[in-house]
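4.2 Preliminary Data

To establish feasibility before requesting continued support, the project team ran the inverse folding procedure on a target of 164 residues. The structure was first converted into the token representation described in Section 3, and no sequence information of any kind was made available to the design step. The complete token record follows.
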């Protein structure tokens, strides 16, 4: 049965056994693993047990992210000996290192350097929707201006006629 050992000081208990297929991790009560630290989101992530020993880390939209060995991940396998970090709290998966360690992590987000190499313009096969909102606002603005001009003219003519 996989076991996580807490590496960050001040977190109790100091280890957690993964007994459920999906173990929720977060700062608030109601999570299977409660990490009472301000950098951990209320509902931060999940540890998914596949089979007897395979553990996957899944971030569930946390504020400070989930990391495996310093790499930010959305979902990724966690190998024995690797360190998972939820916010600033680090835990290590105990057990013997697997011979076939696949270091494939699905990263979350985009690095600024990657933006320059991205293709420019819309993807092929997509067309921009026409935006008629601006046209409607223009027509409404003209109508309001015309009504306002008419009201001003009527008021002005009343004052001109009443003063003679």
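Position-by-position output of the design step:
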């Amino acid at each position: 049965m996989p076991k996580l050992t807490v590496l960050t000081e001040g977190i109790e208990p100091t280890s957690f056994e993964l007994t459920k297929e999906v173990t929720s991790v977060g700062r608030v009560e109601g999570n299977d693993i409660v990490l009472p630290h301000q950098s951990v989101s209320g509902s931060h992530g999940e540890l998914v047990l596949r089979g007897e020993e395979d553990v996957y880390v899944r971030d569930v939209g946390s504020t400070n992210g989930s990391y495996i060995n310093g790499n930010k991940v959305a979902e990724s396998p966690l190998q024995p000996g690797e360190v998972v970090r939820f916010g600033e709290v680090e835990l290590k998966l105990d057990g013997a290192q697997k011979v076939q360690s696949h270091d494939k992590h699905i990263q979350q987000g985009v690095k600024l350097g990657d933006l320059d190499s991205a293709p420019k313009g819309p993807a092929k096969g997509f067309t921009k929707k026409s935006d008629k909102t601006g046209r409607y606002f223009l027509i409404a603005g003209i109508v309001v201006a015309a009504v306002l001009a008419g009201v001003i003219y009527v008021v002005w003519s009343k004052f001109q006629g009443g003063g003679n």
